[in-house]
């Protein structure tokens, strides 16, 4: 699952398809949106992502990762992007395909080169 940690206006301007936008200051109020599975993989990106990652680890999540690039670099590399509101719900798939994401239309796309 991808979680955009950015101001809502920034996320609406551009985000990774399927990402759920949760501004860092709203994290505590959004705790129940995360799956109750400590091994659920969570990929974060955005300015507050490192601080949010620490909080998620404190909550017991063991597979928290940071996207190793800025959103602008993701888009410049030709990876899928979307604008407008992000996904509403965080969805945990216990059997995801490696290096695959689900876009806004529900299509599985490979990322990276």
Automatic annotation (TrEMBL):
Entry-linked PROSITE patterns: RHODANESE_3
Domain spans labelled Rhodanese: 10-83
InterPro entries: Rhodanese-like_dom, Rhodanese-like_dom_sf
Protein name: Rhodanese domain-containing protein
Lineage: Bacteria, Pseudomonadati, Pseudomonadota, Gammaproteobacteria, Chromatiales
């Amino acid at each position: 699952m991808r979680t955009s940690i950015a101001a809502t206006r920034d996320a609406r301007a551009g985000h990774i398809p399927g990402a759920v936008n949760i501004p860092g200051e709203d994290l505590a109020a959004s705790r129940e949106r995360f799956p109750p599975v400590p091994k659920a993989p969570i990929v974060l990106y955005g300015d507050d992502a490192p601080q949010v990652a620490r909080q998620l680890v404190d909550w017991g999540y063991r597979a928290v990762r940071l996207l190793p690039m800025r959103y602008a670099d993701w888009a410049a590399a030709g990876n899928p992007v979307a604008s407008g509101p992000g996904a509403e719900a965080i969805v945990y798939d216990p059997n995801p395909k490696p290096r695959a994401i689900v876009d806004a239309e529900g299509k599985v796309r490979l990322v990276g080169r």
